[in-house]
Amino acid sequence: MSYSTEHAHNPDLAVDRPALSGPVDSDHSPRDLSSTMAAVRGIAGLAAFLLLWEIAPEIGLVDGQFLPSPGAVFHELIRQVTELSFWRAIGQTMRAWALGIAISGFLGIALGVAIGVSPFLRRATHSTIEFLRPVPSVALVPVAVVVYGISLKAELLLIVYACFWIILIQVLYGIADLDSVAVDNAKVLRLTWRQRIRYLVWPTTLPFLFTGLRLSATVALILAISAELLIGTPGLGNAVALAQSTGHVSRMYALVVVTGLIGILMNVLMRTAERRILAWHVSVRMDQTQ
To answer: Would you tell me which of 39, 69, 243, 284 could form a disulfide with 251, CB atoms 3.0–4.6 Å apart?
Structure first.
């Protein structure tokens, strides 16, 4: 496992440049224009999607009985927001999501560091990891139901199994990306095991770990909803299944929209945390300057 690393430009070696003769018009900088165009394209794409949704029943692409208009879904969404059961379902889903991320993160980091720093453990566990991690978590639904029944533990089994491998592999990739010169210097300086983890392994692995956590956040939400749909544990997925079985089509679509909005919010929060915590890393600094 190896990753090619990007080396940051050393600001100490930068050549002083003369100041511009005139004031800089910050209102029309290339970065601002690029952000504006990206926002315009996003709004245009959303508008096109809503337009297609609106006219699909009219032109016969789908039966209007099974695809209510965006206005009807939005009206139902507003009504759901005022109901306590709606917020209870969100809380139950988010509880499973948070516990799944916490457990898989703890196990993935602990085992990833233990395996990554030991050549013997890397060789001994390589085949087992490559065999187990491609197994889809949803395939374990019968096992989860048999072992834990319709409970939070069954839901967590699916979430943790999928997210654990994502985080573990990213941690292993991060440790494999350690600079050999830095490793040799640590040996020469006779750094203790804790010092090597703190000053060498952790800073190199942290960007990879955040990638794993960001991916796991999305996967955990998908599996939480899937487990609630398939197993019947309380949450948004179970509310979607209940709305579908009782014929409340607008409510079903409103809840589906909510799951999508939660996914977008999670991704934004994870990226914001990543940019702030990894502000020192070259990948974040280069992204901010583009």
So the answer is: 243
8 A C-beta contact, residue 227 and residue 149? no
Burial status of residue 252 (CB atoms within 10 A of its CB: 0-12, 13-18, 19 or more): buried
Q: Could you tell me the pLDDT band of residue 28, with boundaries at 50, 70 and 90? A: low
Stated as kind and residue range, the H or E segment containing 251 is: helix 249-277
CA 140: distance to chain centroid?
21
What pTM value is reported for the model? 0.79
Task: Give the pLDDT confidence of 159-205 residue by residue, as tens digits.
Answer: 999 999 999 999 999 988 887 787 777 778 887 878 888 888 888 88
**Could you give the 3-state DSSP secondary structure of residue 272?**
helix
Could you tell me what percent of the chain has a pLDDT over 90? 46
**Domains of the chain in sequence order:** 68-289 (1.10.3720.10)
26 contact partners, CB below 8 Å, separation of at least 6: 32
**The amino acid at 82:** T
Helix or strand or coil: residue 214? helix
φ, ψ (nearest 5 deg) of residue 195: -65, -40
Alpha carbon 221 to its chain's center = 9
Q: What is the DSSP letter of 201?
A: I
- Reading phi first (left if > 0) and then psi (alpha if -120 to 50, else beta), residue 207 is in alpha
